[in-house]
Amino acid sequence: MSSYFDRMANDWDKNRLKVERAKITAHKIKEIDFNSYNSCIDFGSGTGLLGVQLKDTFTKIHLADSSTEMLNVARRKLAESKIANVETHHVNRLSDLTSKHSAIVTLMALHHIDNVKDFFVEAYGLLEQKGTLIIADLYEEDGSFHKHDLSFKGHNGFDVQVLSNVAESAGFKVEKLEQYYEIWKENFDGKKVSYPLFMFVAKRFE
């Protein structure tokens, strides 16, 4: 998975739609009432398109990704902009991180994670009491979204009811679930269709 993103890293921020998607997602996240604003993990952060936009919302931002080249681009941007409260972490899974955090956000990353149940368990362990998990990702689709990437072995979006059940079994309380964005791409037939994204907000309660 990371080899694909390593190849795409230098041109990632040139994609106007990816920039727009991150901006709209950040705006939605800023509307959430968090229990604390100490620290936020952007998991699967890529070049930091989402996480960097939250730098004035949380005291500390942690950009976490498995792609070395994506993180290299992020570090260059942080250095050029002299942003001091954003750190980068090369990780393969959420449990590679430590301490407790106010929030975990992830944009278009969960469908790349093999074991979703483990992700929720690990997220629960990293969050403070009443910490918030925010997932922005694809609704279940026919597999055509990633037809351009032959190496893709992830999930073809999600049945959000199943996702809610997995979250609750890990100890979360689902607070909000809504469609908030759509991506237009060609399907298997070459026809441009909508791939809607959901925003899933859940909190850790002891």
TrEMBL record:
Keywords: Methyltransferase, Transferase. Its EC number is 2.1.1.-. This is Class I SAM-dependent methyltransferase. Pfam families: Methyltransf_25 (PF13649). InterPro entries: Methyltransf_25, SAM-dependent_MTases_sf. One of its GO terms (biological process) is methylation. The keyword Coiled coil does not apply. One of its GO terms (molecular function) is methyltransferase activity. It is an enzyme of class 2 (transferase). Residues 41-131 form the Methyltransferase domain.
